């Protein structure tokens, strides 16, 4: 079975265990990512074409590595003007391995990495900061007076 997915503004024909490079997808190596924009799924005459996407279809993939493509040089020269400009660009790419093609609202066997939300540690730190700001600050005047008295003697 194969599927046609859309990611990064491009369409890819994928099957299970395919290895391909796509535009950057967030996730570290080993993470599972889900592609919900499935435009076509099936095999031969039994293929289902989405309008615009196939309902209940999903493709899961494992991130193999994050990398960058070869450098593309954009060189412009204006003849007889003593003017030239060179620019380079390296596109960020993600190498993925297709794990499963799911249809009919089936759940993936491996769970996709949860998007980072506010962690409990961050909430505790925020509360501690608020508590220190709300607490009255100790007066520094007695320390200064004690220091002046000590230096006068």
Task: Give the gist of this structure.
By secondary structure, the chain is of the alpha+beta class.
Descriptive overview:
With 153 residues, this protein is α+β, with helices and mostly antiparallel strands. The chain has one domain (2-113). The chain is built from 2 helices and 10 strands, in the order ββββββββββαα. It has a 4-stranded antiparallel β-sheet, with no helix packed on it. It has a 4-stranded antiparallel β-sheet with strand order 3-10-7-4, with no helix packed on it. Strands 8-9 form a two-stranded antiparallel sheet. Strand 8 (72-78) and strand 9 form a beta hairpin. The termini are far apart. The model has no long low-confidence stretch (mean pLDDT 85).
Spell out the blueprint of helices and strands.
Elements lengths: L1 E6 L2 E6 L3 E5 L8 E4 L2 E5 L5 E2 L8 E11 L3 E7 L4 E7 L2 E11 L17 H15 L6 H12 L1
Antiparallel strand pairs: 1-2, 1-5, 3-10, 4-7, 5-6, 7-10, 8-9
Function: This protein binds to 23S rRNA in the presence of protein L20.
Protein name: Large ribosomal subunit protein bL21
GO molecular function, one term: structural constituent of ribosome
Name its key features.
153 residues; alpha+beta; 4-stranded antiparallel sheet; 2 helices; 42% strand
Element string (H = helix, E = strand): EEEEEEEEEEHH
Q: Looking across the biggest beta sheet, what order are the strands in? A: 2-1-5-6
Helix content: 10-25%
Largest sheet: 4 strands, antiparallel
Contiguous helical run count: 2
The average pLDDT is 85
Overall, the morphology is flat
Would you report the number of β strands?
10
End-to-end distance, in Å? Answer: 92 Å
Residue stretches low in confidence (pLDDT < 50, at least 5 long) are: none
Radius of gyration (Å): 29 Å
Tally the structural domains: 1
Structural class: alpha+beta
Q: What percentage of amino acids are in beta strands?
A: 35-45%
Pfam families: Ribosomal_L21p
Family: Belongs to the bacterial ribosomal protein bL21 family.
GO molecular function: rRNA binding; structural constituent of ribosome
Organism: Phyllobacterium salinisoli
